[in-house]
From TrEMBL:
Its cofactor is Zn(2+). GO terms for molecular function: ATP binding; DNA binding; zinc ion binding. Binds 1 zinc ion. A zinc finger (unnamed) spans 3-34. PROSITE patterns: ATP_CONE. It comes from Microbacterium telephonicum. This is Transcriptional repressor NrdR.
Length: 159
């Protein structure tokens, strides 16, 4: 790391702290030549490989905008969308790869969206799981109903 004061090619780390969101590290540094102190913020880059083959940085806003379309007319707030986008980013970063395909991001959105709103989930899933027929919708709805029945049975067993 070059010193911003004297442009010396080296610096010493004095202190390191993770940010509140846990996605970056703030480092306090000192130049051994001039003694100047400065801070750096380090983040791990996460790139998205689009269908066209182009790569671009991951964007929570793009996740929110795609999910927002599926949530039109549903009781979902902007705060809900922001939390969902954060959850998706954390899940994608936990894979440990620096590049991820857009389709994998779409699939990572499905489970948190299902928890948030099932109608929005069906809308979104119809695109990312490539529903071609009514049978695809019926299968997805059948799975949702089976999950509801299993959750209700588990709740009555606990009582």
């Amino acid at each position: 790391m070059h010193c911003p004061f004297c442009r010396h090619a080296d610096s010493r780390v004095i202190d390191s702290r993770t940010s509140d969101d846990g996605l970056s590290i703030r480092r306090r540094r000192q130049c051994p030549q001039c003694g100047g102190r400065f801070s750096t913020i380090e983040t791990a880059s996460l790139n998205v490989i689009k269908r066209s083959g182009v790569t671009e940085p991951f964007s929570r806003e793009k996740v929110m905008s795609g999910v927002r379309k599926a949530c039109q007319g549903r009781p979902v707030t902007e705060g809900d969308l922001a939390l969902l986008a954060q959850e998706v980013e954390e899940a994608v970063r936990q894979t440990g790869t620096s590049q991820i395909d857009t389709n994998e991001i779409g699939l990572a959105i499905l489970e948190p969206l299902r928890t948030l709103d099932e109608i929005a989930y069906l809308r979104f899933a119809s695109v990312y799981q490539a529903f071609d027929t009514l049978d695809d919708f019926e299968a997805a709805i059948g799975q949702l109903r089976a999950d509801h029945a299993a959750a209700a049975a588990a709740a009555t067993d606990e009582v």
